[in-house]
Design a protein that fits this description.
Elements (H helix, E strand, L loop, with lengths): L1 E7 L8 H16 L3 E7 L20 H10 L3 E5 H6 L11 E4 L1 H10 L2 E4 L1
Parallel strand pairs: 1-2, 1-5, 2-3, 3-4
Length: about 120
């Protein structure tokens, strides 16, 4: 089984980096099913991707829904604790399945991954 680490560095909206990262995660999960383990690390402004109750206009992508789907399909998702503290959201509840983490765990995931993708 291959482990793929996807790093998201950008806010959920304003660019399409988070959207494209989650599209890649969904595609890896659907195309390679039991042959891939997807881990997602939310870094910098991407920690906002992990917040619940996102409201988007009809017809637009919703990062919360996409994140919930990749979690349901087996992805582990962690948000940088230092980045969350710096943005004042470390105490705010995240989407179920998103855990606060740290650079030590991020380094471990990076070291153990077969592939690392950064968005």
């Amino acid at each position: 089984m291959q482990e793929v680490l996807i790093i998201i560095n950008d806010a959920p909206y304003g660019t399409e980096k988070a959207y494209n990262a989650l599209r890649m995660a969904k595609t890896l999960q659907s195309e390679y099913k039991e042959n891939v383990k997807v881990n997602i690390f939310l870094l910098a402004d991407a920690v906002f991707c992990g917040l619940p109750n996102q409201k988007t206009p009809n017809g637009y992508y919703n990062i919360e829904k996409m994140l919930k789907l990749v979690i349901k399909n087996g992805a582990e998702v962690k948000a940088c604790g230092g980045c969350s503290e710096a943005r004042g959201i470390a105490e705010v509840p995240f989407i179920e399945g998103v855990q606060l983490s740290n650079m030590k765990e991020f380094a471990k995931w990076t070291f153990e991954s077969d592939k690392v993708l950064s968005f």
